[in-house]
Amino acid sequence: MIQLATLRIATPDGLPFAREKLRACFILAGLRQVYAGQITAYISQAFRSYFPAELSILLADDMQNFILRPSEVAGRCETIAITNAPSNSDIEAMQAALSRLTREELLHDLEHQVEERTAELAHERERSESLLKNMLPEVIAQRMKDGETIADTHEATVLFADIKGFTAMARDRDAAEVVGILDHIFSKFDAVAEKRNIEKIRTIGDCYMAAAGLPMPQTDHVDRAVLMGLDIVKAMPGIREEVGVEIDVRIGIHTGPLVAGVIGTKKYAYDVWGDTVNVASRMESHGLPGHVQVSDDVRQALGERFSVEERGTIEIKNRGTMKTWFVHKIAVPGDQ
Fold this sequence. Notes:
The protein has 336 residues and is α+β, with helices and mostly antiparallel strands. It has two domains: 2-100, no CATH class; 144-330, Nucleotide cyclase, GGDEF domain (Alpha-Beta Plaits). It has helices spanning 15-28, 33-47, 71-74, 88-99, 103-135, 138-145, 166-171, 175-195, 221-243, 275-285, 296-302; strands at residues 2-9, 53-59, 65-69, 79-81, 151-164, 199-204, 207-212, 248-263, 269-273, 291-295, 306-316, 320-330. Strands 5, 6, 7, 8, 9, 10, 11 and 12 form an eight-stranded mixed beta sheet that branches. A hairpin with a 2-residue loop joins strand 6 and strand 7 (207-212). Helix 1 (15-28) runs antiparallel to helix 2 (33-47) and helix 1 packs antiparallel against helix 4. The chain is rod-shaped. The mean pLDDT is 86.
């Protein structure tokens, strides 16, 4: 048998083009136009049940019949009789008709390519926006899309949570286990931050940093940060059991003015700077495991809602001696 062509039809949109090619081939072989139209109409209907599909058009060795494959697509038109055996030039003309891309087909193919590319670009844009939202607060990401430079001043409360015992534990474990344990711990902290509507700023090694009162103002930002600290301390026994490691957490909190903004041109980072951040870090580093240590500014802002204990004074670089407090729990029944 002589293989004339194989028509490949991926979607219903390609069916009219295949039908016209097939009809032209049959007419070139000497079939009457009406009969050629009837055959192609039947095959066209059969094709609709098999997308995507292929149809091979062959000439029998005796040149007296077309053979269409596969039979389930061709159906009763699997064998089509030809009155006069085609010449070599007829065969070349039929092959050209079956393989030729019509103007309409070229336009359709171009439109299809444009649609596919447009869909790909839309997907990439959605992916980029999703990544941006994961890296930055949503309101900040939107402002950056609008062309803003992000440089804001806030009254906010900063929390640092450091994992005590993590460095020693990490020395005796492989990288995958260390990363897995830290990921588990910080994922728990992320859940608490989301619950209290506090912005995670970043992690520094085994230290977790978050801030309340930004990027949108919150009148109760001090309470939110302290509640997050208490939530973390309360969650630590369960976390220790889950990761199977004897670790604890030191938490330090300070409140005051700070600057927040986005830096970098390739890996964006929403960050905060200022004396408030430095003091919050000292509250953590001079704290005790299993305790939430706060500055006197935080203590004064809390009022009587929380049970607190005076810790004493600590020396803060560039600030001198500062009075500090431990916050133990919520003192008002029913508040959480």
